[in-house]
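Hypothesis: this fold can be encoded by more than one sequence.
Test: take the structure tokens below, design a sequence, compare later.
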């Protein structure tokens, strides 16, 4: 049963990696079309990609002994500290980059993994803002809202086919990711580096 679970999870993770590659390819095509330049001029390339919500077999110190354990980061993502051999060479002096998305209307963050995370959380930190209400509750609360106007007020251009999907993902459905990131930073589990602001979202 355990092997079946890990195999299914690996299949889902592979789908996610492939899906992000397709999204990146489509984004590149959109930029090329809009800017009317060549692929060489655009120089569009992947900077960093990371997964969350999956289990990985890793070595960690448990009860003062180094052991191989299966770390399931549910609601979390990896945040290895500086010098860890599994971090890409370019990032080893700094710690593992961590991308923390917020909601569609506010901001997201770039963090770095820390040695404290290795000691306290098996090299893990949060992977996002986290919901404060269910999808059904968010839909209900969004009934009287003009979604396009609300997102435009926040400086975000949204393109979508079904109103229901957008209603489920409105900013009011999520915690303020700044508070979540501040908690992680105060705990020393991950270190704030930069804040990003969305300019557009596309929902199918």
């Amino acid at each position: 049963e355990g092997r079946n679970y890990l195999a299914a999870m690996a299949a889902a993770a592979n789908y996610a990696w492939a899906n992000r590659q397709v999204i990146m390819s489509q984004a590149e095509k959109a930029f090329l079309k809009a800017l009317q330049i060549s692929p060489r001029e655009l120089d569009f390339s992947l900077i960093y990609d990371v997964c969350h919500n999956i289990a990985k077999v890793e070595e960690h110190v448990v009860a003062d002994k180094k052991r191989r354990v299966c770390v399931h980061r549910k609601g979390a993502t990896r945040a290895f500290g500086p010098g860890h051999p599994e971090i890409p060479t370019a990032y080893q002096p700094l710690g593992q980059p961590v991308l923390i998305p917020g909601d569609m209307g506010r901001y997201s963050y770039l963090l770095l993994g820390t040695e404290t995370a290795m000691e306290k959380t098996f090299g893990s930190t949060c992977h996002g803002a986290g919901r404060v209400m269910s999808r059904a509750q968010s839909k209900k609360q969004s009934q009287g809202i003009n979604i396009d106007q609300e997102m435009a007020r926040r400086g975000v251009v949204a393109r979508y086919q079904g109103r229901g999907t957008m209603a489920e993902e409105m900013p009011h459905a999520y915690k303020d990711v700044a508070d979540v990131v501040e908690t992680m930073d105060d705990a020393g589990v991950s270190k704030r580096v930069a804040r990003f602001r969305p300019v557009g979202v596309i929902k199918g």
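The mean pLDDT is 91. The two ends are 34 Å apart (CA to CA).
Hypothesis status: open.
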